[in-house]
Amino acid sequence: MDNFQNSVGLVEVQSLTFAEPPDTLALASGKSLGPITIAYETYGTLNRDRSNAILMTHAFSGDAHAAAYHNESDKHPGWWDSMIGPGKAFDTDQYFVICTNVLGGCAGSTGPSSINPETGKPYALDFPMVTIVDMVECQRHVVDHLGIDKLLCVTGGSMGGMQTLQWVASYPDRIHAAIPIATALKHSPQQIALDEVGRQAVMADAEWDRGNYYGKGLPRKGLALARMIGHITYMSDKSMEDKFSRNLKDKDLSFSFIEDFEVEGYLRYRGDSFVKRFDANSYLYITKAMDYFDLSGDLLFPHGGTVDIRFLVIAFGSDWLYPAYQSREIVHLLKTRGVEATYCEIKSTYGHDAFLLEIEEETHLIKHFLDKTVQLVQKGK
Fold first, then answer.
1. What is the pLDDT of residue 305?
2. Cα–Cα distance between 238 and 226 in angstroms, integer?
3. Same domain for 249 and 327?
4. Which of 155, 193, 238, 356 gives 20 to 30 Å between its CA and that of 19?
5. Residue 232: partners with Cβ closer than 8 Å, 6 or more residues away
6. 277: helix, coil or strand?
7. CATH no. for residue 252?
8. What is the pLDDT of residue 127?
9. Which of the residues are catalytic?
10. Do 229 and 152 fall within a single domain?
11. Contact predicate 311/164, CB 8 Å
């Protein structure tokens, strides 16, 4: 199949279930949850000493399907297939790459749409609040299940970068390197505000029914609107001008409230597509987890001192959702703790989406960084 050229090929979603009765997972909120199922995919081969594993952490609306195809009729590969595969930035001829769907998600991992064993119905808002800490704890269970004591690297963009930083805080002795991309130590008031507008859009939909919409009408309009708002923040003024300008869908203006401009039709399409694959309650829970995230000050290194982890921090000049200054704050904090950190700010017009699109420059940076990390690990640093 032509699509499989330069791809890992076909891959299956796997799952791990843990915290089964009488056990539960203690959450950061003080609540507990169990049983928990986490969906994950792997690419490449784990070497004999299990030293070549890289954990890929996904952004807000992502899932475990980071690369390759699920079947031969798939038209589109995983969300970062351009970076994961033979000869790519995360070279599957050299590395064993793992990607999990986060706790609270809706693509195979336990979340608000999962069945509550106590009621036999979907959790809905009975699902406990989860945090980035809890997501990382679930990933740790998967890493343990695969028999990996120490990860070569943890990486991810946006919310994936938050998970990357949380690995540093939670398990500094279990990773050699970290690559947080287009992310922050904590959400700013503006970032929290944008998330809240999206949540309010979902909850204002009459079909949301306080989260009890399963088996009934979905809050399509509210979730689509939330996605439309979010998608604007992923682009930049320049990228929207380059992609749409003021181009009309038809020759003449309609002088009505239908979508006259191409950008209007695009946003409506993105909103409608999102509703087909994402759960509205997961939207609420995951955005709240991002807002709760805070590793500023001394929180990144809760035990004091420094950690023996190499960092590559990547930001993008046109990203206004996670501005480059927030990545520089990460680097400043690392430097004050004596941690080895390289900062690269890529010039791009794509806005926040650049971390998914600036493949050539990211590949160059990441390949060099990982090669050096492998050399240092082999020297027994």
1. 64
2. 22
3. no
4. 155
5. 267
6. coil
7. 1.10.1740.110
8. 98
9. 158, 319, 352
10. no
11. no
Q: Which amino acid is at 105?
A: G
- Give the percent of the chain with pLDDT over 70: 97
Q: What is the pLDDT of residues 163-204, one digit of tens each?
A: 999 999 999 999 999 999 999 999 999 999 999 999 999 999
Question: Are residues 167 and 285 located together in one domain of the fold?
Answer: no
* Triad 300, 301, 304: Cα angle to 5°: 155
What SS3 state is found at 181?
strand
Token pair in block for residue 235: 């682009």
Cα–Cα nearest to 97, from 136, 132, 58: 58
Q: Could you tell me where the DSSP H helices lie in 314-358?
A: 324-336, 354-357
CA dist 142 and 23 (Å) reads 17
Sign of CA dihedral 153, 157, 160, 166: positive
3-state secondary structure of 35: coil
Peptide bond into 180 cis (omega under 30): no
pLDDT digits (tens, 9 = 90+) for 319-336: 999 999 999 999 999 999
Between CA 141 and CA 162 the distance in angstroms is 18
The structural domain count of the chain equals 2
